[in-house]
Design brief:
Alpha-Beta Plaits; 39% helix; Arc Repressor Mutant, subunit A; alpha+beta; 6-stranded mixed sheet; SH3 type barrels
């Protein structure tokens, strides 16, 4: 995760003022060659970094360790923070390192860093299965930088949005945060109709109105996004059934595309079973998906249509693959 390393290197520079490639390599547990390449990449990205040769040399930020935030507030640095948050948020080691590095920064800089990190959520689950992890490279988008600026500076924007069903329309939005899910960026915003999420690659125009807005007090982007995605899953299930499921069957169920919502802490009793709501677009699809796993699934009051489809599948399989009669041992040969 190179973005993680670049951010960590930048924060080390801000905290210490001057570092050598060897110090960066030891701190981040990488090779000196990789550390030098990352330091060069910071300079290319527009971060004011320069190297001093000779004894006592190293890499420094222009202005020294007590520099103001001009360089750090640049679009390049914000983008670096955003991509680091996206690629590293799910990594416990990265989160731990970020906390330590942020605490080492000057107090004025600490707040800005925390705000940028809190303005981005990386959701590595699929839309259908909340616990299934999917790692997809996040796409860069031309609207990402102005949207991030609008989120951090509380700028109201005029949005032109194009969807396959409704076509193009204009909206006025108060951007609250950015989310990346399965490689696509979304912006969560307040609108006249309430909170809405917009896929960034469907934006065809974005204009600042010159107005500012007050974000909701104690707004938690991650919690809000969790609520939105949970609601989407529930509304997308056209047929559902409660079931007692062997926990070892959960991964194959999700791999088959079955919508699974686990209730409670996920385990109940010594058999390691759990109460689950299973769902799909229609009874036939759900029956096909779960038929081969019924040895580990006990349905609770299933809809009649679902039971009928399961019975039909069983009948079809029995007719196509009838049980064979046990073979008899051949009689011993006569002498």
């Amino acid at each position: 995760m190179r973005a993680d390393r670049l951010l960590a290197t930048l924060l080390l520079l801000q905290a210490r003022g001057s570092v050598t490639a060897r110090e960066v390599a030891e701190e981040l547990e990488i090779s000196e060659r990789t550390a030098r390449r990352d330091l060069d990449a910071l300079s290319v990205a527009g971060i004011p970094v320069f190297s001093k040769q000779g004894r006592g040399g190293g890499w420094e930020l222009v202005g020294g360790s007590r520099t103001d935030l001009t360089g750090f507030r640049s679009a390049e640095a914000r983008s670096l923070l955003t991509m680091a948050a996206v690629s590293g948020r799910a990594t416990p080691d990265f989160v731990s390192a970020m906390r330590k590095l942020v605490q080492a920064l000057p107090e004025t800089m600490r707040g800005d860093t925390e705000r940028v990190m809190a303005s981005v959520v990386a959701d590595h689950t699929s839309w259908g299965n909340r616990r299934e992890s999917i790692q997809v490279e996040a796409r860069r988008d031309e609207w990402l930088d102005p949207l991030q600026t609008a989120v951090l500076d509380n700028l109201r924007m005029q949005l032109t949005y194009d969807t396959p069903r409704k076509g193009s329309s204009e909206r006025w939005i108060d951007p609250l945060g950015l989310i990346v899910k399965q490689g696509y960026w979304y912006v969560l915003a307040m609108t006249d109709a309430g909170r809405r999420s917009f896929r960034v690659d469907r934006i065809t125009g974005l204009v600042a109105t010159g107005e500012r807005f007050d974000p909701p007090p104690a707004f938690d982007l991650e919690a809000e996004w969790e609520s939105i995605t949970s609601g989407y899953i529930e509304s997308s299930m056209r047929v559902t059934v409660d079931a007692i499921v062997d926990t070892s069957f959960l991964p194959p169920l999700r791999a088959l595309g079955v919508e699974t919502v686990v209730h409670g802490d996920g385990a109940a009793g010594p058999e390691q079973s759990c109460t689950v709501t299973l769902g799909a677009w229609n009874p036939r699809v759900l029956a096909v998906q779960i038929a081969g796993l019924m040895s580990g699934i006990e349905l609770v009051d299933p809809p009649a249509e679902l039971s009928d489809h399961l019975a039909q599948i069983g009948t079809e399989l029995h007719e196509r693959f009838p049980p064979t009669a046990p073979s008899r041992s051949a009689a011993p040969a006569q002498r």
